[in-house]
């Protein structure tokens, strides 16, 4: 596999908060099969922004890059929260698709399996989980859901041939959801460049946001912080306020998990 993105390319400065509210496991595929320099530039920018946002909100992090096999995915349970970032497509075999998928790119079944093991460990430990783009799709597939392999009428979701890949997409947020309470509005403008999306919902999940054509743009578990958004709030070309609201909600949930663990570990008086 070609290595275009190095770990040092994405670590922000400062890389640690002055005061730690929570310690977060961040899973990303900095490189994937077929990655080109354009994709690498997006990975660098988006990952660095996501990590810098965590630090600005008081969260320390450990970056797990699934470019290489993870040594101990189960250790995700030792963190206060789990953040899953974007990358290549999820292998169709993970959700029962046996046919070739048009426009498929960046598929890495081993990286998918590592990510599913991390999700399982974090969920079993009761940690808050937040997924972006590929991360949101992984959360759905981890619960037994499926994906639309290739969106045929794609114009709302990404640019056409010879055009910029990313577009500003209006997204409707479903009333009564956790996502609606976080964002505080019924519609956001998301930065999108995706050709796949959630199809059949995974166990216990509900739609939290939809595109104007009805495509699912957000999923969540109403009973716990298990939240995914299809768009890229960590794109600096998009609204900073929405990014901060989403990351603050996640860091706040991780902080609560940290406090609950501390109370459970404290000796009884």
UniProtKB/TrEMBL annotation:
InterPro entries: Class_I_gatase-like, Peptidase_C26, PuuD-like. Keywords: Glutamine amidotransferase, Transferase. It holds the Pfam family Peptidase_C26. It comes from Mycolicibacterium smegmatis (strain MKD8). This is Glutamine amidotransferase class-I. One of its GO terms (molecular function) is transferase activity. GO terms for biological process: polyamine catabolic process. PROSITE patterns: GATASE_TYPE_1 (PS51273). Signal peptide: none annotated. One of its GO terms (cellular component) is cytosol. SUPFAM superfamilies: Class I glutamine amidotransferase-like.
């Amino acid at each position: 596999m070609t290595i275009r993105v190095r770990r040092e390319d994405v670590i922000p400065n400062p890389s640690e908060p002055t005061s730690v509210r929570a310690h977060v496991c961040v899973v990303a595929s900095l490189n994937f099969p077929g990655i080109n320099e354009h994709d690498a530039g997006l990975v660098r920018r988006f990952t660095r922004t996501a990590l810098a946002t965590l630090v600005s909100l008081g969260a320390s992090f450990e970056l797990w890059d699934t470019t290489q096999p993870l040594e101990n995915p189960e250790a995700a349970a030792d963190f206060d929260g789990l953040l899953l970032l974007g990358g290549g497509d999820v292998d169709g075999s993970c959700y029962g698709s046996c046919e070739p998928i048009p426009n498929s790119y960046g598929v890495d079944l081993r990286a998918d399996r590592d990510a599913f093991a991390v999700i399982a460990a974090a969920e079993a430990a009761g940690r808050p989980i937040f997924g972006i783009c590929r991360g949101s799709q992984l959360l759905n597939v981890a619960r037994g859901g499926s994906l639309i392999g290739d969106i045929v009428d794609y114009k709302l979701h990404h640019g056409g041939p010879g055009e910029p890949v990313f577009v500003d997409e209006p997204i409707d947020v479903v009333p009564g959801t956790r996502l609606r309470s976080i964002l505080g509005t019924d519609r956001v403008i998301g930065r999108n460049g995706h050709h796949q999306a959630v199809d059949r919902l995974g166990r216990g999940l509900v739609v939290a946001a939809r595109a104007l054509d009805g495509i699912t743009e957000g999923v969540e578990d109403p009973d716990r912080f298990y939240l995914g958004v299809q768009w890229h709030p960590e794109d600096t070309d998009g609204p900073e306020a929405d990014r901060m609201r989403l990351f603050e909600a996640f860091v706040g949930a991780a902080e609560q998990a940290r406090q609950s663990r501390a109370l459970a570990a404290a000796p009884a008086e």
